[in-house]
Every structure is written in C-alpha cells, then in structure tokens.
Amino acid sequence: MIPRYARPEMVAIWEPQTRFRIWFEIEAHACDAQAALGVIPRSAAEAVWTAKDVEFDVARIDEIERETRHDVIAFLTHLAEHVGPEARFVHQGMTSSDVLDTAFGVQLTRAADILLTDIDALLAALKRRAVEHRDTVCIGRSHGIHAEPTTFGLKMAQAYAEMTRNRARLAAARAEVAVCAISGAVGTFANIDPAVEAHVAQAMGLAVEPISTQVIPRDRHAAFFTCLAVIASSIERIATEIRHLQRTEVLEAEEYFAPGQKGSSAMPHKRNPVLTENLTGLARLVRAMCVPALENVALWHERDISHSSVERGIGPDATVTLDFALARLTGVIDRLVVYPETMMRNMNRFRGLIHSQRVLLALTQAGVSREDAYRLVQRNAMKVWEQGADFEAELRADPEVTAALSAAQIGALFDLAHHTRHVETIFRRVFGEA
C-alpha cells in the first residue's frame, strides 16, 4: 500500500491489529461452540473472552514469530499470555488455515462493502451528470475520428450502465469469498465437529465452505480479484475518455482546475488531466494483481502456502488502490467542467460531414444502388476533407445527387435532432424512469 493512494477506512481493514482482532474472534467463537459440545469446559471459553478488549501487542507477536517462524502460533502464544492456563483449550482440532482463510474472508467481505459504497457514490455522480447533459449534443467518434452526433448525457449514461454491471459483479464476488472453513487438517473434520464451523460462520457473518481441503478453494478469490480488475478497467475507460476530451485541440470537457493549482513546473499555462492519468495508472496496478490470484488456484494436493505471500500483498493493495480510484473518479465526475459550445463548434468543424449516412440512406431509398450512393456521397465528402468545402452545398451542386433528391430533401437530411430523437428511450433503459 502506498499512503498517497490510500484512504483510512480501507487501510484499517488490513492493519495488524485488525487482523489479530479477527483471529481472536474466530478462536473465541470456536471455543464457545466447543464448550456447547462439551469438548472444552465452559469456563475455558469464558476465560478466552476476557481478552476481548485487549489491544494485542503487535511487536510482541512479531518477537515470538521470529522464534517460532509461525504467525498463528505466535498469536496464540501471545493470547495465552493474556488468558492464562485456560488458553490450552484454544485452537482445539483446528489448523492455521482455518484461522487465516476465515479471517481473509472477513477482510475481503468488509473491503467489498466499502467498494460497493464507493460504486454507489460514483453511480449517483454519473446519473446526475447524465441527466444534466442528456440533451447536450456532441460528436461521437470512432477510431478517434468524427462519426455521428450523440450527447454527453449518453456518454455518462453508458458509464452508469457499465458501473451498474460492475456493482452486480462485485456483490456476487463478495458472496463468493464470504465463506468460513473450520474443518481441521486436510478438511476432514477428523478432530473438530462441523457444528463448530457452522457456529463460527454465523458469528462472523459468513457462509460455510461446503468442502475445503485445509484451505478454502482459491477459485473463489480468483473470481474476486478478477472482478476488481474489471472494475479498474472500467475506471480506466472513463478516465481515458475524459483525457481525450481534455486535449487542447478538443477541449470539450476537463477536470476541475482549482484556484492555486499548478499544471507544470516549467509552463505556467498548463492545465493537465492529472487525476484521470493517475486513474489510468492505478487501474494498471489493480489489473496486475489479477494474474497472481488466478495462479493461486492451483495449489498442491490438499494444501500448500504458495498463495499466502501473494495474498498478503494483493489483498490490501488491490482493495486499497481500487477504493482510492473509485473515490477519485467520483470526484472527477462530480466536478467535471463541460463545454457545450466547444462541443458544437467541434461538431460543425467539417461543415455537415457528419450527416453522410443519412444522405447515403436517402439515396438508396430513392432508387440509387448502394454502391453508387456510397460513391456519390464519398465523392462529395472528400471535398470537405481536402478542400474545406460545405457538404450540403456540394451535394446540391452534384447533378447525380439532385437527380435523385430535391434541394428540400437534401436540406432535411441535415437536421441535428434526427440523431437525438431516441435519447429518452435509452435513458429509460438505463435508469428505468422517465
């Protein structure tokens, strides 16, 4: 985690004190279940809970681990220093992965909850800007080249629909990793009753893993981190759109430039899209953590720990980075400066060329073959590209065109409203309301 790109609430989930607190709760709830089954004395379970308000000494646990070379044993040793002799009943029939995997599920679930809230905030910002600019006409581009008119509101609505899908994916991914495994060595429950697992799962807000092999299957986690990567890619797509629109020769929208902000150490005139460029970079980081998660799926037999070092890194780094990125994008969208006049000026730069498809279709409907219609339209369009001519004027002066279409018919094909007449239909599809 880099503090520059981290927010406190998400960071707190991955702090050692939080991790040890979750470990404690898992062990304490397991003791309650064991006591209910008569495996350990009720007094022992109660003794463990006396440590519920303890602030675990991270330095002391690290000190023990340097000797034991085992993090869970180090924690249990430190816990025993607080609980006393009754601590011998802690971890009965359990293996380290029971604690580690269940705790990881808790952490990922909490992280997902924050990310879902982040997406909700982004969705609200996108919807507000979509409604605001529903009828703000701008040029649509394919291959970076002028295509046909669209509206800036539709751009925002598209992003809204995309993030709505991402929210659904994340909710599903959350459910997939929100599982508990307290099944003992190689997952057979040989030395612990499945009722203990069920009790811990309910207490920790998790589902029971149907079959674990001493570890929770890592396909669950691979799906989770892949989902984060998809969300990051959506962030980058939106950020890239804004970066293109902020180019000096385009300048249809730009990031808010605050009073006192500086764009360049050398050139005082600069107003750079630094936030969306930053988002592009952060998206790369989140995506980079997807492949290690996929490679974690193939563990040896019932368990190895090749996944452990990976997850210690990608767990906090992917969630913290994505949390920051979602919040940053929300701020960008919320304060994005939009220039409708520039949009219209850019759209008219090539003097009617954007209506070429309507002319093509009108000619075919008037009886001209598609091949000939395409040739006629392209012939006149090239004069606009190469000579700066007016497209409508060239069409009116072309005898082959006017043989099929009257001047009035040609003029009607240049009506901008034709391209936006179904915006309301699209908005209903996306937002489900008028």
- Low-pLDDT runs: none
Approximately how much helix is present in the residues? 55-70%
- Total E-strand runs: 6
Structural class: mainly alpha
The total of helices stands at: 19
Strand proportion: under 5%
Largest beta sheet, briefly? 2 strands, antiparallel
Mean pLDDT: 96
Radius of gyration: 30 Å
For the largest sheet, list the strands in their spatial order. 1-2
The rounded distance between the terminal residues' Cα atoms is: 43 Å
Sum up the overall morphology in one term: elongated
The sequence of SSEs as H and E is HHHHHHEEHEHEHEHHHEHHHHHHH
Structure, explained:
The protein is mainly α and 434 residues long. It contains 19 helices and 6 strands. It has helices spanning 8-13, 16-36, 42-49, 58-68, 71-83, 96-132, 152-177, 194-203, 219-245, 274-288, 290-295, 306-335, 340-347, 356-365, 370-387, 391-396, 399-402, 407-412, 423-431, and strands spanning 137-142, 145-151, 179-180, 207-208, 253-254, 337-338. The strands form 3 sheets. It has a two-stranded antiparallel sheet. Strands 3-4 form a two-stranded parallel ribbon. It is elongated, with a radius of gyration of 30 Å. It starts with 7 loop residues before the first helix and ends with a helix.
